[in-house]
Design goal:
The protein contains one helix and 15 strands, in the order H-E-E-E-E-E-E-E-E-E-E-E-E-E-E-E. A 14-stranded antiparallel β-barrel has the order 1-2-3-4-5-6-7-8-10-11-12-13-14-15. The N and C termini lie far apart (46 Å).
């Protein structure tokens, strides 16, 4: 069997094998612009109605590689003491597909120069796995029951998080899915979702009037998998354009580009290059982000919100 086919099978069975549990939740390179997807306490933190769309195509060239799309919108309410958010997502991996929605709520404690938020969320999703569509080795005489029937399940979950931010600093700790949902009718833990915990932080340093340096990180802890970190460094130029680099431990190196077109519109692009053996079988991963923010009047350019 060719290597590409083997990789596809590994992706598919990864949802049922504990050693591959890190791939259960969608991966984002531009995590700093998609924070609501991992932390409900982020809702309303930008103090305006903010909508973000993100498309990700991972490991281009490998059949069955992940394809993810997500749309989030959040807003502050009641003198910015409350934040609410909505996320709609679709995540496709091989013959598996997950489509769902998330409602987020945040209680925000407003301080003189910062805000501390406590968030919670509820989600519902449709998980499908068309295992019967997999073409196994035709000469094999052994029937594998794992690929004999399809899976259709509606999953419900809850999550929580805490988020602290000022104009120049943010830090957040969250677990967006606390329930250990079973993905199939099999007994045991091998077909269950694993607990994901995220720790993120970043800061903006002034270099000069025209240049700002913004380092950030995201640590991801998943049950049954090694700790993974995304380490990012971005240079803002005249608050209009940002270029950055990122390292995902034992996985990828990344290049990032952001453009603040006007006070309402920001676009971003990320390219991931594998540092593992997978680099020989794919042409990288691509991620595009578009953000639109409501509530600005006039054409005067304002300093962007960095987080």
């Amino acid at each position: 069997m060719k290597f590409k086919i083997t990789i596809v099978i590994l992706f598919l069975t990864g949802l049922c094998i504990e050693s591959l549990l890190a791939q259960q939740s969608a991966m984002y390179s531009q995590y700093m612009f998609n924070t609501l997807a991992v932390n409900p306490a982020y809702a309303g933190s930008r103090n305006v109605i903010s909508a973000t769309a993100l498309l990700r195509s991972q490991w281009v060239g490998i059949a069955g590689a992940p394809r993810t799309s997500t749309f989030t919108i959040d807003a502050p309410l009641k003198d910015k003491r409350i934040g609410v958010g909505l996320q709609i997502f679709n995540d496709k991996l091989g013959v598996t597909n997950t489509t769902g929605g998330v409602l987020s709520y945040a209680y925000r404690i407003r301080m003189e120069k910062a805000t501390l938020s406590f968030g919670m969320q509820g989600s519902a999703s449709q998980f499908t796995a068309n295992f019967s569509n997999i073409s196994l080795e035709p000469t094999s005489q052994i029937f594998d029951p794992a690929f004999g029937s399809d899976v259709r399940k509606v999953l419900f979950n809850i999550g929580t998080g805490v988020y602290y931010n000022s104009d120049r600093f943010y830090a957040g700790l969250s677990s967006p899915e606390l329930l250990n949902n079973r993905l199939s009718s099999d007994t045991g833990n091998l077909s269950r979702k694993a607990l994901h915990i995220y720790l993120a932080s970043g800061y903006v340093f002034d270099i000069s009037n025209d240049f700002k340096f913004k380092p950030s990180f995201l640590f991801k802890a998943v049950g049954g998998s090694p700790l993974q970190a995304d380490l990012n460094a971005t240079l803002w130029i005249k608050d209009r354009v940002a270029v950055g680099a990122q390292y995902r431990t034992s996985a990828d190196i990344l290049g990032l580009l952001e453009v603040q077109i006007n006070p309402q519109i920001r676009v971003g692009y990320a390219y991931d290059h594998s540092v593992t053996r997978l680099r020989n079988y794919n042409s990288g991963s691509h991620e595009i982000m578009l953000r639109y923010e409501f509530g600005f009047n006039g054409s005067k350019f304002l300093s962007p919100r960095y987080f």
